[in-house]
Amino acid sequence: MNRSEDLSDVFELGCPACGQADHLQILITTLARITTEGSDPEGEHEWDDGSYCRCPECGRDGIVADFRQKNSHAEKTALASSDSEVHS
């Protein structure tokens, strides 16, 4: 079975409450050009383990470090396979 990548695969992130790992909201830092007509973001943006993070599915919030997955997807799959073999 071919599974598309999610945040747990790419950033080792996922919601600790509901488990979804398709999308999270993270407060980023970026420079913006401010004029009398408004603001325009410029260049790259940054975030780290201390940045605010929220799950839009269940509303769980905290910092990015709270959303770090303990095991990678490959490790979870291996653990699930070994568990099913033990229970078979």
Summarize the structure in words:
The chain has helices at residues 7-10, 73-87; strands at 25-26, 29-35, 38-46, 52-54, 61-63. The chain has 88 residues and is α+β, with helices and mostly antiparallel strands. The protein has one domain (7-87). The strands form two sheets. Strands 1-4-5 form a three-stranded antiparallel beta sheet, with no helix packed on it.
- Order the strands across the largest sheet as they lie in space: 1-4-5
Tally of domains:
1
How many β-strand runs? 5
Distance between the termini: 21 Å
Name the average pLDDT.
85
Largest sheet: 3 strands, antiparallel
Helix fraction bin? 10-25%
Mass-distribution shape: elongated
What is the succession of H and E elements?
HEEEEEH
- Tally the helices: 2
Computed over alpha carbons, the radius of gyration is: 18 Å
Derived structural class: alpha+beta
Strand content: 25-35%
Q: Which runs of at least 5 residues are low in confidence (pLDDT < 50)? A: none
Structure at a glance:
This protein has 88 residues and is an alpha+beta fold. Helix content is 22%, strand content 27%. The two termini are 21 Å apart.
Helices and strands in order, then pairings?
Layout lengths: L6 H4 L14 E2 L2 E7 L2 E9 L5 E3 L6 E3 L9 H15 L1
Antiparallel strand pairs: 1-4, 2-3, 4-5
